[in-house]
Amino acid sequence: MQNKLQELTDKLYQEGLSKGKEEGAQILADAKAQAEKLIADAQAQAASITAKAQADADSLRSKAASDVRMASEQALQATKKDIENILIDSIVKEGVKSELASADLLKEIILAVAKNFSAQESCDLALVLPESLKAETEPWLTKELSTKLGAGVKAEFTKKIAGGFNIGPADGSWFVSLTDEAFSALICEYLRPVTKKLLFGE
Length: 202
Known about the structure:
The protein has helices at about 1-100, 105-120, 135-150, 180-200, and strands at about 125-130, 155-160, 165-170, 175-180. The protein has a 4-stranded mixed beta sheet with strand order 2-1-3-4. With about 200 residues, it is an alpha+beta fold.
């Protein structure tokens, strides 16, 4: 009896031990598989993060290079424009300003323009001239020019104009600006393409 009980105990122990070993092995295999899956997932996630970071860095680098290139081109164009303006201003504006500050030249231009006005429409004229030329031009405008045109001439003088003049019908319906600034702008527009070609080969 004692032997049978011992046998039964040993058998139960062996079966329990065997079952425990199997379950332990299964738990260990499951844990290992789970660990391997976690490692694989972590590696995939790390690879995805790295790839995204690389793509973002490439995009940022490309955008920065494009921005730098664009800024460089804009700076170059602005510099060229500044050089062009300085050159044209130095050649044209001072020369035009000094020439149109000459009372004799201004009288010739006014007469030529006024004759064209009076030929196209018979009306009295209004002129606006630089204040600095009032003493030299006012008597000529009101007497000699009126006589030559056979029409009335109303003259105003202002400090707002450095050289040249504005001319139009005396009723003020419209006027033509022939100031030093208007002449300079007109001449500069003709000179710009030539200047650009000479300076930059464009």
